[in-house]
Every structure is written in C-alpha cells, then in structure tokens.
Amino acid sequence: MNRRQLLALGGVAGGAVLLPTAETSVAQARLHAPQPVGHDHGRTAPAVAVRPDVSEFSVPMPLPPVLAPVVSRRDVQIYRLAIKPANVSILPGVLTPAYTYGGSFIGPTIRAKAGRRVIVSYQNQLGVSTNVHLHGAHVAASSDGYPMDLIEPGGTRIYDYPNRQQGATLWYHDHSHHTEAEHVFRGLHGFYLIEDEEEADLRLPSGAYDVPIMIRDAAFDAEGKLAFSFDPSTRTTLLVNGKPQPYFRVAARKYRFRLLNSASERVLQLNLGGAEMVQIASDGGLLPAPVPRTELVLASAERVELVVDFSRYPVGSHVVLSDGSTPLLRFDVVRSAPDNSRVPDRLRPLPALPKATVYREVSLGFDFTSGDLPIGVMNGRPFDHNRVDFRIKRGTTEIWNITNADPEFVTHTFHMHLEQFRVLERNGGAPTLDDAGRKDTVFIPVGGSVKIQTTFTDYLGKYVYHCHFLDHSSLGMMAQMEIVR
Length: 485
Known about the structure:
Blueprint: H1 3-10, E1 12-13, H2 22-31, E2 71-72, E3 76-89, E4 95-101, E5 107-113, E6 117-124, E7 133-135, E8 156-161, E9 168-173, H3 180-185, E10 189-195, H4 197-200, E11 210-218, E12 237-240, E13 243-244, E14 247-252, E15 254-261, E16 266-271, E17 277-282, E18 285-293, E19 295-299, E20 303-309, E21 318-323, E22 326-336, E23 358-367, E24 375-378, E25 390-393, E26 397-404, E27 412-416, E28 422-426, E29 441-444, E30 449-455, E31 461-467, H5 470-474, E32 478-484
C-alpha cells in the first residue's frame, strides 16, 4: 500500500483535501470497495466525484426543524418519524436524492427533558434495511440500534429512551452493519438534545440563541447526486447544516452553538480566526467550568458546545468559522439585541471516579494481508455478532487502554455504546483540552493511545464499541461487549 492509499484510509484533517491522481485511482477504488458479505446491499459502482462550483457565503444556514410529538405528557413524549427517500436542496438550484428522517437532509431535532421518557416510532420507507442508534444515550440494549437489529423496508420499530442522564447534545443516525457509512453519508443523521433543570438555572444562551450546527463533508457527481465511495478524499464539499459554506445572521450578543462533526471520516480543526470561543460542554454535557479556546479538534461523531459573544463586534462585522484555513461558516452581525444570558464561572462538577477493578487493552487497526480489500479489526479480529469479546459484570468500574495499532498515516476514533467515559491519559500523559468532560467518542491519531475509565451501571445485554470513522466500522472495525449480572 502506498502513502496516498494510507492517507485516504486515515481520513481527511484540517481542511487538507487529498485528490486522487490517475495512477492511484484504480488502486483506491479497489481499496475502498464495500466488503463482500453475501450480497451488495443494493450498491453500484460509485459515480466519479466532482467539486461543485458554489460561491462562498452565498446561501443562508438553515436550522434543522424541531420534531413535534404526537403525544406529550409530563412523563412521556411520543414521536413518529418516517425514514424515507427525498429530493433535498443541498447545492443551489439542484435537487439531490437522499435518505432522510422526515424528508429533511438534516433530520428533525428532538428536544427531550432529563427524566422524561421519549418513545420514537420509526417507519422504514426506504428500499433498504436500516436502524437507528441514539449516539451518547444510556438506553436498554433493545433500543440501542444494535447493528444487526434492522428495520426492514416497510417495517416499523419503536425505540424507548428514558433520558435518565444529564443535559447533553446527542445525535441519532443509522447503524446497520456494513451499510452505516453509506446511509449516514446519504443523510440519516439528526440532533437529539437533552435539557435539564439544573442547566436551565445557569442562564446560558437559550431559545433562538441556542443553535445546533452539524458539520460534515460530501461528494457529488456532475448531476449533483451524492457520490458514495469508501474513499474520504473524494468528499471535497464541506456542509454546515446541509449547505456548502453558508452564512448565518446573528445579533450582537451571546450565542450557544452545539457543534457536531457528523462526517464519516474527517477530523476538524476549528477556529474563529484567532478570536476567543468559550467551551462549555463536550459529548456528555457541561464541563466543570468554561474554558476559553482559540482552536479545537473535533473528530467524527464528537460534539462540543461553545459560547461566542458577538457583542464585541460592531454591527456589520463578519466572523468566519474555519476548518484549519478552509472557511466553513460566516457569521454576519446584523443587529443589536438585549442579552441577559451569562457564562458562569462554574457549570457542573464531575463526580469522583470510583476505584477501577478491571483493566483492558483495546486496539484498532486494519488487516492488510487478506488481499486487495483491508479488513477492519479490533484486537486483531473483525466484528462477529455471534462472538462476545468482553463480558462485563454490571456495576464494575473498568479502565480501557485504547491504542491505534495501524501504520503511519491511519487515524481512528473510538466510540463506546451505553456508557459515557472519562479520559484519564493521552499517550501516557495528561489529557488534552479536547478530552475534557464526559465523553463517548475520542480521537486516536497515528501512534496514539488513550486511557479511559467508565462504570457499567445498570443495563444488561449486548452493546458494541467501534471506530467511529464509519468507513472503518463498515469494514469490520467493531467489537461486542455483554453486560451480565
């Protein structure tokens, strides 16, 4: 394997887009072909990706619609949501076929309350099997979106979310094994926001000033259709809430931005051109205290919450959010506005860590010895839903040391279902600012290792942990744990 092939496997970072050359295109096509599993899941050869000609900051950034419940009581909210094909507007003047939740390319946002149960009935109107994983949620195994628990075409499945966790920015997406990367690429992703009373008392920016922002990349063919392949270097178009390099009109006051990297395989290096952003939360909710940042790393599936105070800019100013040196989103300060929100010095303390009694080693990597197609492996073995890799006693606190076992250039992210975790060490030293707080996904660069700790509290059953570069998990980089009595 040459350097370019390894770079493609390792993902795209910091706005540096790798374009295939003629001499490597055939090799890359073979490298990133879907893994054969008895049938092709309806896949055909991907179209050749082209870079759309779209002017910077020429379209407004939309806000995802908020899903209305069909039943709303004090103890429960019930939703219905169709998973269906739709023609959506991503590029100006073009309708693009997509897989959607409810007909929108960014699925509708579900706003939940801590302690109030949410039940969602999903009906699959696609011509392919799918399922739904609520990423970051503490739920029973039957509602986790296990990769083999599929909603067949025409079928319906009910997911039960108790929301017995603190306020946090979660998201829901497809998790059907071998097809998760393609299905999320085609649009099966949306926000799920848990709010709690303790957080509301802090008077952080709220309402219209609390804005979810989904960042991802995409590849299009000459007709404006999404062009899927397992090669992330073809995904040359960056989308913010489903639009290429949009603008967003803001008032000269504080905003809370909930940022999600939903790209299948990309690491973002976010900045406001050197201006200060105040981080208040990570994957699992609020940090103990706000942290001023001028840049941050956000890998696939990670979330971060920032407060940006636009009152320091005069009306008429433009402020640009970038990935490295690549512009993503322009904030246009268009008016003044009253502001009684604040960022308090203390947010939410983290609980003391219990003593760990089990220590495990986990490695992520590829097996390059099986021919033209690499196989994703965890601890040297590809995913097998008939095999349990770790049996974990309920109530146990464990430390996992997770390493990137791949050669030069190949990076990964690690995601654990069921439980949030805390990062104890990175590469044998202190965690970085990007590791702070309660996490469920963590970036592991070349030669890197991350030590995490978590307690498996109450639910029993089988759950997965995997690389959240979905191209990698689709190729087998996933394993299974069973929580037992």
